[in-house]
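Homework-ish question, so no full write-ups if that breaks the rules, but can someone show me the predicted structure for this set?
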Amino acid sequence: MTGLLGGALVARWDDDAGVWVVTGWAAGPAGVSGLELAPGLTVLVDHARPWRLAELQLTPADDDQMPPATAELLSRLLGAEGAEQLLLLRDSGEDRAVRLGHRPGGDADFHRFVLLGGLTDELGDPAGATIARLEAVAAATAAGVGDLDRVRELARLGLDGLPGAAWPKQVVGLQHLAARVLGEQLERVDVDVTTRTTQAVTGLEDFLAGRVKRLRGKQVAAVPAAADVAVDATLDGSYVTAEVRPATAARNLWLVVVAAADGVPLAWVPFGVDGRCEAVVPSGLSAGDMVAEATHDPKLAAISTVVRETRLAIVAGRRAARFDRLRGREFASTYWWKCAERWAKAKADQAELAERFVKTAPHELLSRSDEPPPADVRLLVDEHVTGGP
Amino acid sequence: MAADFPDTGPAVEATVIASDTADRLRWKLASSDARTVVVAAALAFVTFAQCPDVPYPPSAPHPEGRGDPLRWASLWLVGHRCFGDPDTPAQRQARSRLLRPLDLLLAECWSAVAA
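A: Not a homework solution, just the prediction itself:
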């Protein structure tokens, strides 16, 4: 019996790190997304091609007793036989990897759930994070893992996010679904929730059609200091004004503005207690000529080119992937090109694949051994993201 | 009591710096051992020196003959707020604690770049 994860999977016990690892595909130019689904069990998927498993990591408990929820989920992910094969590797005393066999493609809804679950931690925008949580719950339910504690946690966070906000009807539908996962019923019953659970996720044509957002003319690409921090930066004349959210994250935080072409440090400015700051940059530059980064250590950001380029490459790749999910090929190509340039500066192999994505969207560029992507790769949350990648 | 640092004694002439020279200077500043806030002020200084058309921030105080406007604007942008009208001795001292290392850093990096 196979599980929710498919493809050509290789399992091994990593003696140095002390974890079991199941590897699928190498991470692509937009990096990976994922979350801890049960105690000690983390699943990561390729961000641009989330139907591909990047890695499953399983960390033994301190008392070496695997929690029942973790053991059960492992079986659901790899099948009982695959889970047994994996766990035996540690006790075999051999440093070896075993193929779990080529399985049918993984469950599309489950992979979508993992991607969305990862996004909830990346989005600094509270509205976007709330929608991502609710959408993740819907995907998990469709994949048959709506009973996981992690899913119930996401449902609770999604329902409690931004109380009183006026949500579009698609989000209200997701709220009703999340309430059902928790065994609750919402007071507002203004949407028919008797439809199939996946409809809330996949029936969004009208909502998404032709509404691709882009950076505003004066908006400077901004990289947050951490996953839960969002930075907005705009150029007005020769001044970049920036705001970090939440403002409480501004303590000891600096805005670093660098030239996009060669990384020359243009300005370092500390954020004020109100979460805002203002930096002067040379005249004649446009917003696209520079990148703003929030960091606790401007010197490290300036010196470590590879670190910075890698981070910026992944940011560009995530933006590109988002535009591809929204069917915004033109914008996606632009960001894949930026992504490829960044990876090239970081001297990494991902540059080549990012360059191929410039011409062909990730869900259309398939290798012979690749699993077919799901018919619909769009995410509701993409339409609402205002911060983060 | 430490002597007040003369605000008007530029170690680096605030004349127009060529673009490529300014970029080399910026790299040099960013990789120096100086305090982050001093490097930050120096980066603002270089931009003002490179681009005389860039106005000082409207909210920045004007020294009115008590110092170099370029330096004051650079300090203001990195969050330094010790300006008074007139200054108190404490404000002058606080300012000099940044201006002194700022000028030393600029002079050191300028020498390296110009060499």
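Now go work out the reasoning yourself. Hint: Helices of chain B lie at 19-30, 36-50, 69-77, 89-114.
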